Amino acid sequence: MSSGDTKLQCYNRSCGQLFDPAENTSESCLHHPGVPVFHDVYKKWSCCEKKTTDFTEFLNIKGCTRSYHSNIKPVETPKRKEENDKEVYSSPKPMQQRDAVERPDPNQPMVHLPFSVGASLKPVLEAMQKEITLEKDPENDSIVQLNTPCQNKGCRVVYRGEESNAETCLYHEGMPVFHEGMKYWSCCVKRTTDFDSFLEQIGCTTGKHKWHKDKNMEKRAKCRYDWHQTGNSVVISVYSKCPLPDLSFVDANPVKLHIYITFGKEKTIFDEELILYGVIDLEGCSVTYLGSKVEIKLKKSEPLGWKDLTLRDKIMDIDAMTIQDK
User: Fold this and answer.
1) CA 173, CA 203: separation in Å to the nearest integer?
2) In what residue span(s) does the CS domain sit (predicted)?
3) What is the pLDDT of residues 209-221, one digit of tens each?
4) Residue from 12, 147, 19, 6 nearest 67 by CA
5) Mean pLDDT, the chain, as a whole number?
6) CATH for 181
7) pLDDT digits (tens, 9 = 90+) for 73-90
8) How is the beta sheet containing 294-300 ordered, strand by strand?
9) Count of C-beta atoms within a 10 Å radius of residue 43
10) Are 120 and 247 members of one domain?
11) Which residues, listed in sequence order, are joined to residue 275 by a DSSP beta bridge?
12) Is residue 294 located within the same domain as residue 223?
């Protein structure tokens, strides 16, 4: 039997190579023994000092430790017991003053709100696509080094020569989302709590490999937004010129909203989470992408006036959340 017939898949983080057990030594595998850490806008490995704001660059950080290859998948470390017991001793609940019915739990699962594209945005998107198509791609004249990883999100292929350019690339055109312990791509329905399973999710879009980084990657901005209400609804307007519907989403549960908008030619990202002042009926909510803004229409569960859009003491900013698998 040839050595090629006995090759196994290495599951050490950031390795992913095939290896022959007969040739496996303590110097064979270059990997990360730690866990991924996501804090503010930075992404890093707990075993390394290097950190980055770009998710693809994070996935391409070379391992910091050499040891044997392993064909055993890492076991997700359970949360420490003390973390689960933090809420055992809680302060007395304040006297209920506003809601006629019990307020739903803000940690309920969230769903994508249905959306439509307004007439004012469609010609802008078409013009942008034509402009991108007509631009000369400088990457065509660039030299690609062997073993350069594909920069498309979710693709793990490396450049092996000209034949790599003819391959079909499977990648995610959306953005990675880490929310309430769940990990998923904004372009996919599949969700998981395990980081390694998230990394192994096969792309949902086909195209060509991209061997060079975009000049503008994951640029974030704070967009201005306002709101108004009627007896039965609340309308939020987020002012973001030329939003990209395919790279954006709005998630909601009865008392919480997660707004993720990608807009403009540079694909700038607005990412915000709001704890709503009142309770909404998800069946009557919708999103409309317009030329200069995104309108989010929320149906009130009861025809009561809202004193404000949010409960300000409970507003959470996605950029300030700490998501750490330890």
Assistant:
1) 8
2) 220-310
3) 988 876 555 688 8
4) 12
5) 81
6) 4.10.1130.20
7) 877 665 554 444 444 444
8) 115-117, 280-289, 294-300, 233-238, 225-229
9) 22
10) yes
11) 256
12) yes
- Is 116 a residue whose pLDDT tops 90? yes
Total domains present in the chain: 3
Same domain, 158 and 288: no
Distances (CA, A) of 177 to 106, 197, 247, 260, 315: 18, 14, 12, 10, 19
Residues 6+ apart with CB under 8 A from 207: 152, 168, 169, 171
User: Which residue is listed with tokens 């709005």?
Assistant: 250
Of 230 and 7, the structure prediction assigns the larger pLDDT to 230
If asked whether residues 123 and 251 sit together in one domain, one would say yes
- The DSSP bridge pattern shows strands 115-117 and 18-19 to be unpaired
Q: Answer yes or no: is pLDDT of 98 > 70.
A: no
Nearest CA among 302, 318, 324 for reference residue 99: 302
What's the whole-number mean pLDDT along residues 8-33?
A: 87
Can you name the residues that pair with 171 across neighbouring β-strands? 205
